[in-house]
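Subgroup meeting minutes
Present: P.N., E.W., G.H.
Scribe: E.W.

1. P.N. recapped why we're keeping a running log of single-chain structure predictions: easier to compare across weeks, and new members can see raw inputs and outputs side by side.
2. G.H. added today's entry (312 aa).
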Amino acid sequence: MRLTPLLLWIMRLSLAFSIPFPLPKRTVHKSDFLDKRSRSNSDGIVADCIFMASEEGEFTYKSDGSPKVCGLYFIAPPEKLVEIEFTTFNIDCKTGLAVVVDGWEMNQQYFPSPEDHDKLIEDRLHNLCGQLTTKTFVSSQNVALIQHLIGMPGDGFMVRVRFMENLRPCNVVSMFKRGLYTVKNYGLKRNCSVSIIYPERIQLLSVDVGVTGHFRQQEGEFGIRSKCHNFIGADDFVEIAGGNGFELGFLNVRGRYCGMEANVGSLGVAVACQHSLVRLVSSGNYFNSVTFLYSNLTADEIGREDPNKCTK
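Output recorded in log:
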């Protein structure tokens, strides 16, 4: 079990105040938030322990004293960042804590995966307690999370959430079951992932990976390749993966591709898992770009797939 700062705090609290640890593990499913968008009332009062918002606004949470680990999940459009401004904050440090997560955490796994984020995991977690006037955080991608355990009735916080422009989006969570998206590296050395928390069919439409260099256009007809280790841009590729976890270590790669082709055609991969991922790995030597179509699988299609492909 990965000991996040919130879990470490709970352990310390359990020793000091004889609170039983570990607390019953809360298993978070996508249906807890993606399929049940924001259910705050007209005044922005958050009533659910697991809450998801896909719109800007003000949100207020006050504890009823239940010793539960809860979360406010925020998701913006792909080309946006999430700004969280605490306008009021009062959580007794002896009985509670809030953690702002740069990304999402679900069942002790993070998106973006630690391997693909510019920041170390400890720099993506911000612990808060006591009384604050105002404090602002801006995410590195289109999702952010406030995790909290608040044991004192009436303690809580109010946040103002805004969506800010992201001129070079990289890691993205899709809030929809189907769509069209282009992921790019903008010539930078970085890995970019598009996360779709549904069983999906991923169809590559256009691929330019490991071909278009900084100083000149590579010549020749490359086409798309599924074996990239002998390719000129071998360190650059796009892969389609799936699994029932959030992080890369819990996903199985279904296909890996490189090369250049404008009309890929019928290249599609079915991912009958809880989590489908398109991941662009870039060395920084090329301007990589991948356009793909994604659509949710039917129940029959899911039933025909091997469930062992979703575990690792």
